[in-house]
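Hi W.,

Here's what went into the run:
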Amino acid sequence: MKNIIKPSVLTLFICSILMVIGCSGDNKPDASNENVNAQQTFKWKLVTSWPKNFPGLGKAPETFAQYVNEMSNGRLQVTVYGAGELVPAFEVFNSVSVGSAEMGHAGAYYWKGKIPAAPIFSAIPFGMNANEMNAWLHYGGGIELWRELYQPFGVIPFAGGNSGAQMAGWFRKEINSIEDIQGLKMRIPGLGGEVFKKVGGLPVTLSGGEIFTSLQSGAIDATEWVGPYNDLTFGLHKATTIYYHTPWHEPGTLLEFIVNQEAYEALPKDLQKIVEVATRAVNQDMLDEYTARNHASMIQLVQDHGVKVMSLPTDVIQALKIATKEVLANESAENDDFARIYAEYSKFYESVKNYHDLSEKDYYNNR
Ligand code: CA
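Here's what came out:
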């Protein structure tokens, strides 16, 4: 590679000062790319678990690509592929790990079979909400634990958006007690699915593109997806009008950007910074958009489509809470990474929850 930059005496002086000082308190992924040509153009493929151009979740990778292409002045060109275009929805992690795509956008709980502790970095039933997750990741040591977890796979994770609290979902029949959950076949991924199984349900995993027809045909009895904005877009109200709001299984679901480590380290430092900052911007942008659109979509569902919005019965919520504790204890017993990371998560959660009881929750109750 031809080096077109001739360093001045001043540059060399600054570089040697930086080398002496080193970097401390900076949690960026490691990168050794001093010899990279700063004018080189890079082309990245970004594979996703969502249908192409899907609102909300699918908008995040498109916005990321746009930000990066513009901020780098075309030096890093990112092309987004929807689920199934290059790889199926659930092959995103493997594809980024082996480097057939440089980058992916998905949810960490999809990799539960491969990395049992991964779901901690998407959603824990009755766990942290969106603001609390962001706080833990970026100021509470969470992202460092996440990077350690993915390191053996040559994959670097970044926060990739948050849906906020998700709705309990769409049911073909009303749920009046825990008895109605017995044998109920529901599309519900991750730890929520494990908890659902513990209270007698039959969880199934389907990618977004398969949900509507499965619910409409009766192949499944119920499904969760995201919330009013995305659920309306999917037309789930055309399969059933019974919609349970009570958030429990995904109280603030984090999405992820994942980057192939070699591809990241091959970038000059300014492009690495652009990738990092663009993911951070998109992470917040998704929450802003859901916050803006969910309430408007809920009105549409109720007023224009006759959707009946209901609360889960108290005995169901209580059973789900008890089952959640058991599932988390089981997961911790079976996997050391899960135990270690969940202990850190819990420490932060307990403390932030106590403070939010005095602040956010108190305000919600009083306003
Ligand atoms: Ca969901």
